[in-house]
Amino acid sequence: MALELTALDVMSDAPVIPVIVLDDINDAVPMAKALVAGGIRMLEVTLRTPQALACIEAIAREVPEAVAGAGTIRSAADAKAAVDAGARFAVSPGFTDAVAQACQDVKLPLLPGVATGSEVMMAHEAGFRQMKFFPALQAGGIPMLKAWQGPFFDVQFCPTGGVSPSNAADFLALKNVVCVGGSWLVPAEAVAQKNWALITQLARDTAALRKSVA
């Protein structure tokens, strides 16, 4: 049986959590293997396509070295479906008590999305100390995270949304940022072309991000 994860475990595993959109279940396993080969194990498969849950299930079943997670969790039903598919962590674009409670009920570690101080406070009251800052760039980016370091000194963030190889290191340099989320590790064109070697290389490149802020 797999060890139970915490949200901090998920955030601390690598500098980047890939935000993955898959339309074809046949891409799920080779894509996951490509990311694992590059050192990325925490895989956020977003529930944005009809095939997403089946893709999570395939990864959980066939790529044991990976940790399949579900993104775009927007309801209690999403949380249950994600767990049933084999997801071991969840990420939501916003925060609601219903989603938080549903994830807690099924012991699914959740990174709730927050974009304002009020949302951080609501998530904090519900017991969360690790959160997704989304959409990071549009919601204030690095200046906002710096401003939050004082009042939210005990909260750690995963900025997602507008984060790219060109600014990821700047986000990671902040003391309240543990990792970032980004879609650049799994470009749609690379998936369409079955260019798994490129995805492995992009994953490997994230190691340099860790070194640059160490």
Description:
The protein is α/β, with parallel strands linked by helices and 214 residues long. It has a single domain (7-205), classed as Aldolase class I (TIM Barrel, Alpha-Beta Barrel). The protein has ten helices and nine strands. The strands form three sheets. It has a four-stranded parallel β-sheet with strand order 3-2-1-9. Strands 6-7-8 form a three-stranded parallel β-sheet. The protein starts with 6 loop residues before the first helix and ends with a helix. Belongs to the KHG/KDPG aldolase family. Pathway: Carbohydrate acid metabolism; 2-dehydro-3-deoxy-D-gluconate degradation; D-glyceraldehyde 3-phosphate and pyruvate from 2-dehydro-3-deoxy-D-gluconate: step 2/2. This is 2-dehydro-3-deoxy-phosphogluconate aldolase. Homotrimer.
In short:
With 214 residues, the chain is an alpha/beta fold. It contains ten helices and nine strands.
Give a topology summary:
Elements: H1 7-12, E1 16-20, H2 28-37, E2 42-46, H3 52-62, E3 67-71, H4 76-85, E4 90-91, H5 97-105, E5 110-111, E6 113-114, H6 117-125, E7 130-133, H7 141-148, E8 156-159, H8 168-172, E9 180-182, H9 188-192, H10 196-213
Parallel strand pairs: 1-2, 1-9, 2-3, 4-5, 6-7, 7-8
Helix pairs in contact: 2-10, 3-4, 4-5
Amino- and carboxy-terminal Cα gap: 33 Å
SSE pattern, N- to C-terminal: HEHEHEHEHEEHEHEHEHH
Strand content: 5-15%
**Low-pLDDT sequence parts:** none
Count of β-strands = 9
Global morphology: globular
Percent helix among the residues?
Answer: 40-55%
**Number of domain units:** 1
What structural class results from the helix and strand content? alpha/beta
* CATH top level assignment: Alpha Beta
Mind summarizing the main beta sheet?
Answer: 4 strands, parallel
Adjacency order of strands in the biggest sheet? 3-2-1-9
Query: Rg, please?
Result: 16 Å
CATH superfamily: Aldolase class I
CATH architecture term: Alpha-Beta Barrel
Discrete helix count: 10
Mean pLDDT: 96
